[in-house]
Amino acid sequence: MKRHFVPVILAAAGLAVAAPVLADHHEEAGLPGVVDVSRVAAGTYAADPNHTLVGWRVNHFGFNDYFGIFGAVSGTLELDPADPASAKLDVTIPISAVTVAASGLKDHLLRPGSEGAAPDFFGPEPAPARFVSTMVTPTGETTAQIVGDLTMNGVTAPVTINARFTGAGANPMNKAETVGFEGRAMLKHSTFGIDTFVPLVSDEVELDITAAFEKE
């Protein structure tokens, strides 16, 4: 991939400085969500499918980058602020609901292979992807590294997410206790059996994640 990858391993020291600044901004703006760990209650949270997104980015033929989004994410987060390493994440991402700007590209992503051949990308009616954490390692007061197994296109492989806590509070619309996170990761789509255009389409895929979870 000619374009150099946006670093996914964020400096814990830098984030430790940035988090209080973000918290102060949220408080000054009167926002419901604040970067304040003391607001987080232990328990099980469900992914908010309307406000949780997984963005992806690849390089196209060396000309430019192209990106899209997966939404309608479902699943759970088990969280105890007193013991962040015990957190467990299990989320499902519907591949068939991929969103891109061009309808022709979406058709290609979900197109069956010709004359019995394998599809170029996911093919029609692809199974949802699923990420299940296997280890959570705190890297700062508001950051953690989440290692887990991603199952996609019938293949399971490890993926690491560098995550940052971005806010907690009561959702003013439904009053649900809500926590928010952002994450970055990188994977190779050839690992999951999608390699038709490698290296013309970069094998490396950048993932940019924004997630909201509501307490059950």
Automatic annotation (TrEMBL):
Pfam family of the protein (one): YceI
Location of the Lipid/polyisoprenoid-binding YceI-like domain: 44-214
Keyword match 4Fe-4S: no
Signal peptide: 1-23
Keywords: Signal
Keyword Signal belongs to the record: yes
InterPro entries, A to Z: Lipid/polyisoprenoid-bd_YceI (IPR007372), TTHA0802/YceI-like_sf (IPR036761)
Name the record gives this protein: Polyisoprenoid-binding protein
Species: Croceicoccus pelagius
Higher taxonomy: Bacteria, Pseudomonadati, Pseudomonadota, Alphaproteobacteria, Sphingomonadales
